[in-house]
Design goal:
Layout (H helix, E strand, L loop, with lengths): L20 H19 L4 H4 L12 H4 L7 H22 L1 H30 L3 H4 L6 H14 L4 E4 L2 E4 L3 H15 L7 H18 L1 E2 L4 E2 L17 H16 L20 H31 L5 H15 L1
Antiparallel strand pairs: 1-2, 3-4
């Protein structure tokens, strides 16, 4: 079994252990926010995203992501946060993971706000302006994109199916779209999930700082926009994605002191090199964590403390003198 497999939730494995302090703290916030909304339903009007009130209450762009109004919603959010955070935080660090969650949550809420305003002007239905929108699903979708980036080839055991981690965000998006046509009430969650996937990809693709390789973002082909879709669609999607890249994110950002272009155009083969570096870096971090766990188990099995053994040797040496 590879070291990476020990950190990916699998059937029969110890998935519900080893959670990080940051994720535990955020899980407590999600739980307390849910209790607050249940005890004081009127608080949802100030904490959830209500587009008609966002201009005076701009803080709901941040707070809406941490408000789960249903019991199944808070359970899924807490479990997902603990499991996905356990994989990502050892590789990113607590500070970077917290930054990622904040940026994805804020940008997703902003995109949902703009979308509802546009839909209102198109349909003139006031429900788009006054329906409270909230939920942690955008961040959960973004965490899945992070796992796709770090461990794209890792297989997840989902009941009787084995699915590569790189396809999980795409499957979640497809299922969300399909369910929204069947259950109309689930339509409210669809923009949050889709924007969560896209905005997290934007951040990881173009803006995340990675000091260990001297680059900003991930220019590898394995993390391109078309990598979220089946291979036969990529010849169609790649030209479209390149247009939006030039419009919104097109820049020749260079890392400090290295001169590496973000898109890797000056260095042929840099995409595959970066992908290999990413896999090796993730594998080393996971193997290191596994080694630390094994060392802790072995140290606990030692019966005689080393200090006592050292003291006995010193006594024997003094007797001989």
């Amino acid at each position: 079994m590879s070291a990476s497999a020990t950190l990916i939730p699998a059937a029969g494995g110890k998935s519900f252990t080893g959670f990080t302090k940051l994720c535990k703290g955020l899980a407590v916030i999600l739980f307390l926010a849910h209790i607050l909304v249940q005890l004081f339903p009127s608080s949802a009007g100030y904490l959830a995203l209500i587009p008609a009130r966002t201009i005076p209450f701009a803080w709901n762009l941040v707070t809406a992501g941490y408000i789960e109004q249903t019991i199944p919603g808070v359970i899924v959010s807490i479990v997902g946060l603990l499991l996905f955070g356990k994989v990502l935080e050892p590789l990113w660090g607590a500070k970077e993971l917290l930054k990622f969650i904040f940026i994805v949550n804020l940008s997703t809420s902003a995109c949902v706000f703009v979308t509802t305003i546009v839909l209102y002007y198109i349909t003139e239905e006031e429900s788009y302006l006054y329906t409270p929108l909230s939920g942690f699903y955008g961040v959960l979708s973004g965490l899945l994109v992070g796992i796709k980036q770090i461990l794209p080839d890792q297989e997840l055991n989902l009941f009787v199916l084995k699915i590569s981690a790189k396809w999980i965000p795409s499957i979640v998006a497809f299922i969300s779209v399909a369910v929204s046509f069947i259950l109309k009430e689930s339509m409210a969650y669809l923009p949050t999930i889709l924007f969560g996937i896209y905005m997290s990809w934007i951040y990881l693709r173009y803006f995340q700082k990675r000091l260990e390789v001297g680059l900003r973002g991930d220019p590898s082909d394995e993390f391109s926009f078309s990598s979220f879709f089946p291979g036969f669609l990529r010849p169609i999607l790649d030209p479209i994605a390149s247009i939006f890249h030039k419009l919104f994110c097109g820049r020749s950002a260079r890392s400090e002191g290295t001169g590496h272009a973000l898109d890797g155009s000056q260095f042929p083969g840099s995409d595959s090199i970066e992908a290999n570096r990413r896999r090796e870096r993730g594998q080393r971090a996971l193997e290191q964590r596994l080694a630390e766990k094994l060392a802790a188990v072995r140290s606990a099995e030692v019966t005689a403390p080393p200090s006592q053994q050292q003291q006995q040797l010193e006594n024997d040496a003094s007797d001989k003198v």
